[in-house]
Amino acid sequence: MKKLNKVGYILSGVVLGVALTASLPTMAATVTTIKAKLNGDVKVIVNGTNLSSKPINYNNQNYLPIGDIGRALGANVKFDKSKNAIVVETAKQEMPSTVPTPSNPNTATPEPIKEAPAVKFGQQVVTAGVSRSVDKVEYLSAPVNQGNTQLQKGINVYYTITNNSATPVSDILPMFRFETNNQVATDELNRAGNMIYLNIGNQPFSGQSLLSGETATGFIHFDSIRDFEVSSISLVPNGHSDSDKFGTWNIQ
Prior knowledge:
Blueprint: E1 9-12, E2 37-38, E3 44-46, E4 49-51, E5 56-58, E6 61-65, H1 66-72, E7 76-80, E8 85-89, E9 118-120, E10 125-127, E11 130-140, E12 144-146, E13 149-151, E14 154-163, E15 175-180, H2 183-191, E16 195-200, E17 203-204, E18 215-223, E19 230-236, E20 247-250
C-alpha cells in the first residue's frame, strides 16, 4: 500500500456509512502498521455521483479517503501542519438580514385570526349554517329527581342547536368550557362528565345526527359539590383546542 500524503481515511460502517475516526497523515508514536485489502469491487456513491475512490477493508470495516468524501459533500478538507490535523470545514449558511417581500402581487395575505363572538345568554351564534345558543344556567343546591334518574348538586346548562345547513350534523354536543368565581370549581367543571337531556322534536336525543331543518334543545347536567357562580360558557368543537371556539356566552 502506498504511503499516504496529506490524505486521511475515515471509518465508514458497512451499513450505516457514517465517518467516525481519522488516522493521522504523518508517522507518529501512535501509528500502527496494519494489513488491509483494497476493495475494488465496491462502488462509492455520494448523492448519486460515483466516485473513483475505492474503499479499503480492514476488520470487516470499510475505510474511505476523507478528502474525496468530504469534498463530494461540499466540505473543505485540508491538512493543518501546525496542528498536525486533518481539518474538515462545511459551508456555513448565512441567514438573510431582512425578510424578502413577496414579489407576486397575487399572493394572498393571510386573514387575521377571528375572535370567537361574545354574546349574551339566549343569543345564537351561526357557523356553517348551524346555529347554537346557551340559553341559561340552572343551579341545583341539592339532588333532584329527573325521571328515573337523580341529578346531584351542580348545574343544568340549557342548550339549543338548529341545523339550517343541507347536510346532517353528527357532532351535536361540543365541549363546554366554564369560567366561574371559584377556580377549583372551574377546573373541575371543565374536566367533568355530563348527563344529556336533549330532545329532537318529540324524540329524546340518543346520539343520532341532527338532520337538515331539525332542532335539538334541552339541558346538559354537570355535577359539582362546590358553591360557585358561572360568569361565562364557551362552546368548543370536539377535538379542537380552546382557541377554536364557536362563541362565548356571558352572564350579564
